[in-house]
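User: I need a structural model of Lariat debranching enzyme from Eudyptula minor for a docking pre-check later this week. Nothing fancy, just the predicted structure tokens so I can convert them on my end. Input:
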Amino acid sequence: MKVAVAGCCHGALDKMYETLELLQRRHNVRPDLLLCCGDFQAVRNEADLRCMAVPAKYRHMQTFYRYYSGEKKAPVLTVFIGGNHEASNHLQELPYGGWVAPNIYYLGYAGVVRFRGVRIGGISGIFKSHDYRKGHFECPPYNQQTIRSAYHVRNIEVFKLKQLKRPIDIFMSHDWPRSIYHYGNKKQLLKMKSFFRQEVESNTLGSPAASELLQHLKPTYWFSAHLHVKFAAFMQHQTNSKEELPKATKFLALDKCLPHRDFLQIIDIEHDPSAGDSLEYDAEWIAVLKATNSLVNVTQSSWNMPEKNGLHAKWDYSVTEEAIKEVLEELNHNLKIPCNFTLTAACYDPSKPQKHVEPVHTINPQTTEFCAQFGLTDINDRIQQAKEEGSVRGEYEEEEEEEEMDSTGSAEEPSEYNTDNSGLSSINPDEIMLDEEGGDEDLSTCSVDPSPDHPPDFSASFSDIRIMPDSMAVSSDDAMDSTNEELEKSGVSKQVEEKNLNERPLKRIGGNENGNSGIKKIKRRNQAIYAAEDEDKTE
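Assistant: Understood. Predicted structure tokens for Lariat debranching enzyme:
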């Protein structure tokens, strides 16, 4: 089957789907599935815009709300993960995944699903070491810290994914796995993005957690975005035993979704022709969720996952074939994910703007149903309970208090990672960065500036499908020729780029009685990510 893969969408759904329709019309290529590697921006209304960690002047409604309201429907099944520019309050409603609109499915904090027999996994967010060992404690309305920590990867999600034993066909992460640049045309990467050089040479660019998952899962394909540059690599994995067959991962990072940009990739994937066209649960993943349910944490306390170090009675939470069989029997061998999308917030109305509406903490019926079916903890319900009991607050402790908490929480177990890197160069001119020390814009008073009801015509400029340029052929610096040959076999072949074409309380369907206390400021370091005319200055 044909799978389309997109990088950072930034809410431009109309543009993405128009490009796919153009592809079909001009080249008779119709993807069966669209994957998006984060920064999807499922923004339903002005309150959602306030939950995006970007300066106010870059908060634009874009076009997702039309798909949420039912005005439009995605023409192809779309599966996405979260990035670092998201309506975090919306995605937080679906920690285990779910439909954000008809035919558009979010994988959750981490998740695995199946489509036509192809096993697809992913992890949302970006890596930050200072939040990695915390629980999912955040809830709207966010302050300056929690609006960012809400999308930071947590160790429990990585731990769950590491319990998987069965092969993964496709895996998605927003930020790149650390070190992956050593397995591709690093020289060309640094020519296009010279400001990555220091981090590449010091091997600090990218996520160490994603790198750990890459080495453990060894998927056939790994797709990422975040750095706004196209890059391919081919990683041959080491085998653990003589009996184990060699495995390799074809890595591809996608550019952001802008005119004149090469932001879509079409890949041919082997699938099960006897499988149906519905998105399905993955039985092993459901069994892992059940096995690790007792590890759910909704506090700010830092803690490490169980490991074989003498400190834990149990450290292996992988599941048996019997446990997987039990999941299948619970579902009567019907793994189809129910089409149970539900509106949980008012949809943006261009004729009636509501610039000062506050976000509320909402429990989504999809999550309630999913947790009840499989006996799982509803994370948002647990957060609300904890808040009511006074054990969780929606804002950070002062730095001194947090250090004390860490020392008492798990002082005997240091963090797995001693770096603090989100996978993005601090001087990347293609990205908006948020200043920890404050800046010139205040979240508590920022205005919401939705885009006009009629977005720009995106049929403007995309080039014809073509073979991936030699400049981005996958290889290590020492073995260009051999891995270029692997790329030709990989099926990563086509690119799309057409040119010159013409109530505050919690609701069960929210709330936080607190205001926006503790809100600080954010600073815009650059603008390129949301400028439609953006061109890389380094090229």
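Before docking, keep this in mind: The radius of gyration is 22 Å.
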